[in-house]
Protein: N-acetylmuramoyl-L-alanine amidase
Organism: Streptomyces melanogenes
Amino acid sequence: MAPPMSADQFLTALRAEGLRVVEVDGWRTHNRAGHGAWGPLNGVMIHHTVTHGSAATVRICYDGYDSLPGPLCHGVITKDGTVHLVGNGRANHAGAGDGDVLRAVIAEKRLPPCGKADTDGNARFYGFECENLGDGEDDWPPAQLLAIEKAAAAVCRHYGWTERSVIGHKEWQPGKVDPRGFGMDWLRERVQERLK
């Protein structure tokens, strides 16, 4: 368990990993404070957006929807590999998930299958939404995959976590399929190599 990073620490960690970062106006104070806890932090969650077009994707992740207010993550990773910071603090990205999965993340062990939604993930995970239609056909450009790897590694490096602290939304919440188009074990292997 770990306390949340400050906005400056988060930005510094991402840039130190070699990422191109864009600070969206207002991101440092944009959060869901007052709607649940933010921390202690235990991991990084990867999502796909089911959107197309960088500007529209960033705007949706910042603003959210009528039924789900933004921010919908902390960083949006667009097709060109840029990380757009849209939130700092609690964000509406993980929702309720499996407490057994959280316990495995904390222990940095292999994840069990998720079968229940009994634990608040928004309090416990940094979230990165990745621009992709999520249909299994939309491509994942190399620059974007590298940025996903670097962003996950940046958070893990800050906290001294291993690659086991990186999970997909589909590994957390029953019924979710994201990210679709690459495997989470494959991503964790890449993060592991980067953290050596």
Summary: Residues 142-159 form the longest helix (18 residues). The chain has six helices and eight strands.
